[in-house]
Amino acid sequence: MDTEAQQTERDRSSRPDTTEDTSGTPGPEGRSRSALGRGVAWLPGGWVTLTLTLCLVFLLALSTFVVRPFQIPSGSMEPGLRIGDRVLVNKLAYRFGAAPQRGDVVVFDGAGHFGDGDFIKRVVGVGGDRVVCCDEEGRIRVNGRSVDESGFLFPGDDASTVPFDVVVPEGRLFVLGDHRSASSDSRDRLGSPGGGMIPADDLIGRADGIAWPFGRAGRLHRPDAYTRVPAPAADPAHTGGGAHG
Length: 245
Hints:
This protein is an alpha+beta fold. Helices cover 19% and strands 24% of the residues. It has 2 domains: 35-65, no CATH class; 68-244, Umud Fragment, subunit A (Ribbon).
C-alpha cells in the first residue's frame, strides 16, 4: 500500500475550499436590499404606494414650512383678488432677516386685532411711517409723499372715506384692502388698542401668486406706487407711534 499517496489524498480533501462563492448567502448590502424589497412588498400596491406616501409627506412639509394655500373669503382685495381665488402664501418671505415692505399683500392671524381667523390685506405703512388721508386730490400720503393707487384700487373707490393721520409703531403694519368700500381694515380700528396696526410677528406670510383658477394663475407683484416714498422722518412726531387726529 502506498501510504504516502494515501496521506496526500487525505491532505487534499481536508483543506478548506478557498474559492469565493458569491451565489449563496448575500452580503450586508444584499441583505439590506432584500429587506427593503420585502418591506415594500408588504405595502398594498408596493412601490406605487411608497412613492405616493413620500409625495404626500413632501407636500405636507411644504405646506407646513414653506408655502401655504389660502382661499380668498371676501371681495376686500378686488379687483386683484376675487372671492374663491386660491393664492400661494410664502411663509419664508419674512424669515432670515427680511421685513415686510409697502405694497406687499400679506396674510396674517387676526386674533386679538381684527377677529378670529386669517386675513389678507395690503401693507400701506411700516414701522415709523406717517400715513395720512387724504391730500388735495384724495390720495393717501406716506411720509409726505402722495401715492398713486390707481393700479390696484377698486375702480370708483376713494382712497378712503375715513380721514386719518397715524404714525405706525415699530414692529407693526398699517394695512388696507384694495376694495376700500368693502374692506374692514386698519382704518376701522384706529381707536382700538394697537390703533388698527397689526404686529409684524403675526404675519403668516406674503401672497406671491394665484394658483387657482387656472385662467387667473400668475404671480402677484409689488406695485411701483410706493417706490418713491421716503424713509420715515427721524423726529419725535414720527417716532412716538400711535394714532393722530
